[in-house]
Design brief:
mainly beta; 4-stranded antiparallel β-sheet; 1 helix; 8 strands
Length: 100
């Protein structure tokens, strides 16, 4: 069941809502994406390194780096083959961060 279906069932229109938060450890050298989401994602890298490509622009990240992915962003994440990333992320919906 997708986020929009959950919101429809709960009768939520545009109220800010934390969908879920999770801690993850990624396998060395793994690649996730490309993916386009319809929610906001806040990610904080706790250890390890990697690269992320957001809408064609590449960024490297390491421990204690955080970033926000907006709805509609095209994202590809790659974990370092020797020092894989581990971190936490939260999925948020109902926020219109593009107006601020």
């Amino acid at each position: 069941m997708g986020v929009k279906e959950v919101k429809r069932q709960l009768g939520i229109q545009n109220e800010p809502m934390v969908i879920y938060c999770r801690r993850e450890s990624v396998k060395p050298g793994s690649v996730h994406g490309p993916v386009i989401r319809d929610v906001c994602v806040v990610e904080c890298n706790l250890s390890g390194k990697g690269k992320i490509v957001i809408n064609g622009q590449e960024f490297s990240f390491g421990p204690r780096d955080c970033y926000v992915l907006l709805p509609g962003d095209t994202v590809v994440q790659t974990s370092d083959p020797k020092d894989p990333r581990s971190g936490v992320y939260c999925i948020l919906d109902g926020l219109d961060l593009t107006r601020h």
